[in-house]
Structure prediction request, 406 residues.
Amino acid sequence: MLDIKFIRENAKLVTKAANQKGYVTDVEKLLTVDDQRRKLIEVVDSLRSKRKEAAEKRDEKVGLQIKSELKEKEDKLEKLNEEFYLLIRQVPNLPKDDVPIGLDDSKDEVVKEVGEPKKFDFPIKDHLELGVSQDVIDVDSAAKTSGPRFGFLKNELALLEFALIQFAFETLTKEGFIPIIPPTVINSKVAEGLGYPEYETGEGYKIDDQYLVGTAEHSIVPMHMDKVFNESDLPKRYVGFSTAFRREAGSYGKDTKGIFRVHQFDKVEMVSFTNPKDDESEHKYLLSLEEKLVSALGLPYRVVNKASGELGFPTAQKFDIEIWIPSQNKYRETHSASTNTDFQSRRLNIKYLSKGVKNYVYILNATAFAIGRTIITIMENNQQKDGSISIPEVLQKYTGFTKIPR
RNA sequence: GGAGACGUGGCUGAGUGGUCGAAAGCACCUCACUGCUAACGAGGCAGGGUCUAAAAGCCCUCGACGGUUCGAAUCCGUCCGUCUCCGCCA
Prediction:
């Protein structure tokens, strides 16, 4: 949520920014309602003040008189407030100044490319062909047991998942991150507070009044809801592992093959609560850790400064890492590092105390490994002529084998 | 699932109809002191809204919502949450 004072003073900028991100907001209406609301607040406040006065004088007659008048105005105010919050919640976070403007990924800015896409001197297979032939991926059974866009990881791949998790946790706990296994269910109040409209618009799985999380961030961030950090405790960094659930509504026909885009996958995720002044350095730091992890696997990748239209509702800037996928002959998103500035902390009331003054923290998140996609990139980039797959050296001490089949 | 207790400021915790947005302690901030640090001393210190150039002022908030009352942290109802005991259980 943006500060209403900021919106009042920067109405045009806010409208423009929302449009650049592809969201529709009615700032003008918001300001009209805000105006009506404030006028009525004055009226209600002065009535309440009079009521207090009457109560102090034990003046029952005046008290009763005010009571009925107040009730009517208060009801009116409540309706206006509801409308006000509905409107202000529809205003997305502003993109930062160096975010490329554009509604889709064609405007993404490539920041750098690391490593060369590998040349193969044999006809390559995609991850599903490899997975089936090595008996490590089974989507057919998953379709029967669960539905489309699910998958079983079997044999060596099941072990590879744990290797990736251990590698990420070992690397990041060395950096001082707090390891954590969060709940994968959040309540609707939290879902609303995170500022991802996706939960309410059907992109999230709903169980009664709760949602399955789309990423570990979504339960780690609200863990500190209504809390105040000491400035000296910042940055507070977590590395979490959780399963992520996504409906993938609206992506029919997209990436339907294999396990590239599925309803359920596991992920190691970084979350950081920081002092606002450290936002940029923290963002770079998280990105550098992502690069460190990807580089260690020896995979060719590039870093992309995502276009405004690709940013999530609460996000001010997002850098993606895209790893080369040979069968698709292009780089595909495997990681992203976002700063949501104080947009989420405002909604969730997460502050820090500095020199006696409380202020909202900045919240950032970044992928360590999205397991499924990382496994795809390893399989495809490391495939051999004979159909076997070599395991990146850094993972071998965790897997206990050097190639698939072992 | 059954029985009981509780939910107050950044934290601990007092407060059972008006004198309470709230004692006390801790934390934090400012000042003073000390060769430095610590301790001690003096003062300050809940959050939000509204108005304002800024303040003062005024309003709201004691888990949430609703009710009783001229007046609610305090009484009543519903819900949510936490803890203890019992039951069940990976």
Remarks:
- Chain A has two domains: 4-88, 105-404.
